[in-house]
Write a structure and sequence with these properties.
seven-stranded parallel beta sheet, three-stranded mixed beta sheet, EC 5.1.3.2, about 350 residues, NAD, globular, carbohydrate metabolism, alpha/beta, binds uridine-diphosphate-N-acetylglucosamine, binds nicotinamide-adenine-dinucleotide, UDP_G4E
Length: about 350
């Protein structure tokens, strides 16, 4: 059992990870400003786990508030999800992204150092890979300048954490490079609840299916892929949550900073996702083809051999499971947590 501080723990991936942490017997302290989530997710997590966690409302940019959490709780390790993630918005208001994602992460590192806590799992993204790499992407491939400011913040924080671990051997840091998280806990009680119009494919598909949006725009059908639409590596959020537990175990007995891909290793096209969603759930998803979205690549999927070999992690869920679980959540919660 360890006492884990989870920044951004009320959000989509954070709430699923809190549930798995509680199931595994850990104590969980969530620190979240609720800017893109609500406490209801944590109320449901505690009901599902039949176990309490501690929730502290606060902002990672607030050093005093963070220091206080470390003083009040004897933290063993931190999983750091807190941050902003809307790609389009990051182009409009880059400074806000630099502030939350980069400055906020630096504040967290400072509070950890002050408190003598040196074990950290960081939410990174496959977006840090250079676009010239050919999938499957492995961790030894070069990173590159991401096409958007959101991705840039992930790359910068990764680099800072690498330098920090090089400079001070007390740090033990996991950089988890997520591919495309989708799905929801099988209960349908927690799931992805984006504010406003979704940017990502999966919530858009489920909102069309539930009648909140008219039709899906498929961005580009002239890529060099199986059917012309973009190919991505969709990973069930519960598999992703479990990767954090595996990374945590690994880091609690290791030093340095290391990156792991978290994906299934399988690529699926947008049309395959839409068609499989319709088959598995028996609901139609109206769509049209639209022009390519700026910044998109044709194909991105993981080589996940390192995570399997070193973390003892293994994804359990198929694309069908992911799409059934996404729909189960959306159907039970047509307006999200509200
Ligand atoms: P999310 O928005 O659901 O969760 C992020 C949480 O952080 C929210 O609860 C939000 O209220 C909180 N938060 C934001 N700024 C904060 C601040 N300054 N202080 C305290 N709390 C703050 O997003 P998610 O999909 O669960 O993503 C979690 C992490 O994983 C993020 O860092 C994201 O960039 C990263 N990530 C997500 C994806 C994805 O597709 N969802 C892919 C790769 C990486
Ligand atoms: C996007 C971001 C990435 C971020 C990730 C998680 C871009 C360029 N990349 O990844 O930085 O880490 O989200 O937040 O924005 N699609 C449609 N119609 C839609 C939505 C998406 O056809 O309405 C297509 C896309 O063109 C892509 C696939 O679906 O081929 C997946 O898109 P998305 O869910 O946005 O994820 P990524 O683009 O992989």
């Amino acid at each position: 059992m360890a006492r884990i501080l989870v920044t951004g723990g009320a959000g989509y991936i954070g709430s699923h990870t809190c549930l798995e942490l509680l199931h595994a017997g850990h104590e969980v302290i969530v620190f979240d400003n609720l800017s893109n989530s609500c406490e209801e997710s944590l109320i449901r997590v505690q009901k599902l786990a039949n176990k309490a966690l501690v929730f502290v409302k606060g902002d990672i940019r607030d050093q005093k508030g963070l220091d206080q959490v470390f003083q009040d709780h004897s933290i063993d390790a931190v999983i750091h999800f807190a941050g902003l993630k809307a790609v389009g918005e990051s182009q409009q208001i880059p400074l806000t992204y630099f502030d939350h994602n980069i400055a906020g992460s630096v504040q967290l590192m400072q509070s950890m150092e002050k408190a003598g806590v040196f074990t950290l799992v960081f939410s990174s993204s496959a977006t840090v890979y250079d676009e010239a790499n050919i999938s499957p992407l492995n961790e030894d491939m070069p990173t590159g300048m991401p096409s958007n400011n959101y991705g840039y913040t992930k790359l910068i924080v990764e680099q800072m954490l690498q330098k920090l671990a090089q400079a001070d051997a007390r740090w033990s840091i996991a950089l988890l490079r997520y591919f495309n998280p989708v799905g929801a806990h099988k209960s349908g009680q927690i799931g992805e609840d984006p504010q406003g119009i979704p940017n990502n494919l999966m919530p858009y598909v489920t909102q069309v299916a539930v009648g909140r949006r008219e039709k899906l725009s498929i961005y580009g059908n002239d890529y060099d892929t199986v059917d012309g639409t973009g190919v991505r590596d969709y990973i069930h959020v519960v598999d992703l949550a479990n990767a954090h537990l595996c990374a945590l175990n690994n880091r609690l007995s290791a030093q340095g900073c290391r990156a792991w891909n978290v994906g299934t290793g399988n690529g699926s096209s947008v049309l395959q996702v839409k068609n499989t969603f319709e088959q598995v759930n028996g609901v139609p998803v109206a769509f049209e083809f639209a022009s390519r979205r700026e910044g998109d690549v044709a194909t991105s999927f993981a080589d996940n051999a390192r995570a399997i070999a070193e973390l003892g992690w293994q994804p359990q869920f198929t694309l069908e499971d992911m799409l059934a679980d996404s729909w189960n959540w959306q159907k039970q919660n047509p307006n999200g947590f509200n």
